[in-house]
User: Which sequence fits this backbone?
């Protein structure tokens, strides 16, 4: 029986086709399942097409489906559906091949690719002193890097990064990504490993027309139709691409059978959460009896979003998957073990610290109240330090130096703070996590078979220990724990804690994702610049490089506006929002402003542009509720919008502000407005 695979673009555009055409496409696809002889399907060769494998099928009076027939194997590929003339035009010069080294399916147009480099030759260049890095590869190496044979001459004509940039839009994406890795300094083998996670261990095609193994491969853009129900599902209107198509590297991480804990890291928008969700579904299918998968995050909003997405991604195993955020998790564990604890609110904490700093214990000590509280909240509490001796010997990365004598002095204040909290029967969030950790370590909480953690960069030491304690790390079971995070986005716990300190050893099982799906290359680059000069850690104490990072699409450059007054800023933002909404491509719910600014909000409202505040513990209502979104930078973490405006950008050295600006900028998919105030009034 023949197989049918559908291309990503068919799925994307299916909803725009007339209903009659959609029905015919269903019929065409069913026919492959039942009787795929060419006679019954009426596949017509297109004689004028460059690639002799191209066929057309009637799917309506004036509509044609372009199908690629295999020279070897029985897998047919439905690539494109359009009006007759447009469909023929689309396929006329393209080549459709299985790459014999990578095994992936590729579509390319040799003429357009060569033209892109020829255009560059008309621009005058200074003589290049040294051969461009890609020129140093032999034809065989270029082929091993995934370049189709027919495109090797186009690569040979590339003389510098600009040429390569121009050509890369015409290369099959995986070949472009591997060459990009090489251009960024990797060896060919490293680039294959780093960009694709190595090669699939399957038989490779024997000719470019051999499609016999395509269905077993991780394909970026093709999905195998597996029965009627599956077809209905993938062609339904609201299906998101990430649910069907994974990058080969993501797929490898999703199905990686590990003997110990693993780590996935990478900059914003590189598909970490997508990989985590698919992995959770993959693990849920392996649960026996009462076994459960736990997904936990730092922020409530992300856990709410993930829970909603998991219901769509894995409805059949959703009862095996629990999604919760760290604090809720700690609450549940403590509640089951010893009853409800009252969490100290900001006002409670203010009062506790006031009492501590005015008590006799504080007299004669030379610490500011802010410093004492920060030391407690960033070091003592999240690290679960309960004895003076531990405090005297501990590493306090990123905090101002304190001599041994000073540590002894300040410790007294922490003891007093804890005494005050206990007296008032209050517990801090970190205190709660500490208690939960102790409960879990004593075996008083049953734990989970598989644990997956997102936003790990914001987990303190105690939180990491808690995670280790509720996963089956000690039992030595396979796939016990998967931690996911990004050191560029540490906006809660600013003191990095290597996870090895909590006994989570991911050596040899740590991988970095590099392909950015969310943000245009222009925005990615700008956001990256915000953190320039800062060392970013890999969640395990080492510095992380961003070598080979790349977005899958381009867009307009971020717009930077300097304003000397609030009025100027309000005008700039309203004009920008109007421009976006009037363009017709961007709906109001796809625009987000951060941080909230009452003058801007009032001006938008009085211009007839409604606004919606993003609230804690609630998912964004999406297109069901129109209106420009606004929220703090913390609140919009984990979300994404077509357009984002940062309203308070400053060239600050403050680490937290820079991280928050990075997070805010990387929420934008296509448009980013950055407003900086030069002088003048403040809100
Ligand atoms: N394989 C894929 N195909 C298409 N889109 C994808 C794919 N993987 C991820 N995406 C999309 O890219 C965007 C970013 O993905 P995701 O949220 O998983 O990234 P992330 O690394 O967790 O980002 P952040 O750390 O910034 O929250 C989402 O819109 C997601 O749907």
Assistant:
């Amino acid at each position: 029986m023949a197989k049918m695979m559908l291309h990503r673009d068919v799925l994307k555009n299916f909803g725009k086709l007339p209903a009659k055409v959609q029905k015919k496409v269903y019929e065409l696809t069913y026919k492959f399942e039942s009787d795929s002889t060419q006679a019954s399907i009426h596949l017509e060769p297109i004689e004028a097409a460059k690639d002799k494998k191209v066929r057309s099928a009637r799917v309506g009076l004036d509509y044609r489906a372009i199908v690629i027939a295999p020279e070897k194997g029985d897998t047919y590929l439905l690539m494109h559906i359009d009006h007759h003339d447009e469909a023929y035009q689309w396929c006329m010069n393209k080549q459709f091949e299985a790459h014999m080294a990578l095994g992936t399916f590729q579509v390319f147009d040799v003429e357009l690719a060569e033209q892109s480099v020829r255009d560059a030759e008309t621009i005058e260049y200074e003589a290049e002193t040294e051969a461009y890095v890609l020129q140093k590869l032999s034809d065989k190496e270029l082929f091993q890097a995934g370049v189709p044979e027919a495109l090797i001459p186009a690569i040979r004509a590339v003389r510098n990064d600009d040429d390569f940039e121009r050509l890369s839009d015409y290369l099959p994406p995986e070949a472009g990504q591997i060459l990009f890795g090489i251009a960024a300094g990797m060896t060919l083998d490293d680039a294959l490993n780093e960009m694709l996670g190595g090669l699939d261990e399957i038989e490779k095609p024997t000719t470019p027309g051999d499609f016999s193994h395509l269905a077993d491969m991780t394909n970026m853009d093709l999905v195998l139709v597996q029965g009627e129900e599956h077809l209905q599902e993938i062609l339904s209107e609201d299906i998101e691409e990430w649910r069907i198509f994974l990058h080969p590297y993501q797929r490898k991480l999703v199905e990686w059978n590990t003997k110990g804990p693993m780590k996935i890291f990478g900059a914003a928008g590189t598909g970490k959460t997508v990989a985590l969700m698919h992995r959770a579904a993959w693990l849920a299918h392996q649960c026996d009896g009462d076994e459960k998968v736990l997904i936990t995050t730092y922020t409530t909003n992300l856990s709410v979003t993930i829970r909603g997405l998991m219901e769509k991604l894995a409805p059949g195993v959703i009862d095996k998957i629990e999604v919760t955020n760290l604090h809720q998790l700690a609450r549940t564990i403590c509640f089951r073990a010893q009853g409800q604890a009252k969490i100290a609110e900001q006002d409670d904490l203010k009062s506790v610290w006031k009492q501590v700093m005015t008590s006799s214990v504080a007299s004669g000590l030379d610490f500011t109240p802010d410093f004492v509280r920060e030391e407690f909240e960033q070091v003592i509490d999240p690290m679960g330090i309960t004895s003076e001796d531990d405090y005297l010997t501990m590493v306090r990365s990123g905090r101002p130096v304190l001599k041994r004598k000073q540590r002894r002095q300040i410790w007294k204040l922490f003891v007093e703070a804890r005494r005050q909290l206990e007296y008032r029967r209050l517990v801090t969030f970190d205190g709660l996590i500490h208690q939960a950790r102790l409960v879990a370590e004593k075996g008083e909480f049953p734990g989970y078979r598989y644990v997956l953690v997102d936003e790990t960069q914001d987990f303190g030491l105690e939180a990491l220990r808690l995670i280790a304690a509720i996963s089956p790390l000690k039992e030595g079971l396979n796939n016990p724990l998967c931690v996911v995070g990004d050191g560029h986005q540490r906006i809660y716990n600013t003191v990095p804690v290597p996870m090895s300190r909590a006994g989570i050893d991911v050596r040899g099982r740590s991988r970095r994702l590099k392909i950015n799906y969310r943000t245009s290359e222009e925005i990615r680059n700008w956001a990256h610049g915000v953190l320039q000069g800062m060392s970013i850690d890999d969640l395990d104490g080492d510095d992380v490089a961003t070598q080979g990072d790349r977005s899958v699409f381009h867009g307009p450059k971020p717009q930077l506006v300097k304003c000397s007054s609030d009025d100027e800023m309000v005008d700039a933002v309203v004009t920008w929002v109007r421009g976006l909404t009037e363009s017709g491509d961007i709906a109001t719910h796809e625009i987000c402003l951060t941080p909230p600014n009452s003058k801007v909000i009032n001006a938008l409202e009085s211009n007839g542009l409604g606004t919606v505040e993003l609230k804690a513990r609630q998912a964004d209502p999406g297109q069901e509720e129109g209106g420009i979104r606004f929220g703090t930078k913390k609140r919009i973490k984990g979300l994404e919008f077509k357009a984002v405006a940062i309203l308070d950008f400053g060239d600050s050295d403050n680490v937290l502000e820079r991280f928050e600006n990075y997070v805010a900028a990387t929420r934008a998919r296509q448009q980013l407005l950055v407003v900086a105030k030069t002088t003048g009034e403040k809100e």
